[in-house]
Design goal:
With about 210 residues, this protein is α/β, with parallel strands linked by helices. It is about 25% helix and about 20% strand. The chain has six helices and ten strands; from the N terminus they run E-H-E-E-H-E-H-H-E-E-H-E-H-E-E-E. The chain has a ten-stranded mixed β-sheet, sandwiched between helices. Helix 1 packs across helix 5.
């Protein structure tokens, strides 16, 4: 049964954030709010959590997982990024974008695209997500909470708790965070390719 945490959207309760991150360190899989939909999240080293995300969303081996990072310094530990791409990504973060980039050796192989050796990275512009990442001190492996066969992600924490109670460990709710996922920009070839239109304005990469 998933624990339900009602978190203030502008001033998250420190004790609650601490409780959630403790559960993440103990292997929890959570649903949490971002600046573009709710996401499923677990620690990088949590193999079981990763498989649970795959199962909930029915993802194949070619799905790009995202490392949701607190800041640019943390993001830079996990992807290779040249100067031109650096400037473009830096100007768009934090924000509703996910960037596909070549992964460094810090990224577990199971999180990389099996052929391209790439991974998704993002920095959310959301107070609660940032509080969780700051307390955890490492990225969250994340995937948009979009269930199989549905056109839009769930937007209500209580609904997530009700429908996924048996497969999640915690639901962090701070109110509505929209239905548009991130805009995904693939920089793995060096040039920007928009592979999914979402909440982030794609014009800056076109």
């Amino acid at each position: 049964m998933a624990k339900y945490f009602d978190v203030h959207p502008r001033t998250p309760q420190a004790r609650t954030i601490h409780t959630v991150t403790d559960s993440l360190r103990s292997g929890a899989l959570i649903a949490y709010p971002t600046d573009s939909c709710f996401a499923l999240g677990c620690r990088m080293g949590n193999r079981e959590g990763l498989e649970r995300i795959r199962s909930i969303r029915r993802l194949d081996d070619h799905h790009h997982f995202t490392l949701t990072c607190e800041n640019f310094a943390q993001l830079g530990q996990f992807v290779h990024i040249d100067n031109a791409v650096f400037r473009a990504v830096k100007a768009a973060t934090p924000g509703s974008y996910t960037f596909i980039l070549p992964a460094t050796k810090e990224v577990p192989r199971r999180l990389m695209h099996p052929k391209k050796k790439t991974v998704g990275v993002r920095i959310p512009d959301h107070v609660v997500a940032q509080a969780l990442l700051a307390e955890l001190g490492e990225p969250l492996v994340s995937s948009t909470l979009l269930l199989p066969g549905e056109d839009e992600p769930m937007t209500q924490g209580w609904e997530i708790k009700e429908r996924l109670d048996h497969v999640l460990d915690a639901v962090v709710d701070s109110g509505d965070c929209g239905t548009d996922p991130t805009t995904v920009v693939d920089f793995s070839s060096g040039a920007a390719e928009i592979v999914r239109l979402g909440a982030g304005d794609p014009a800056r990469f076109e």
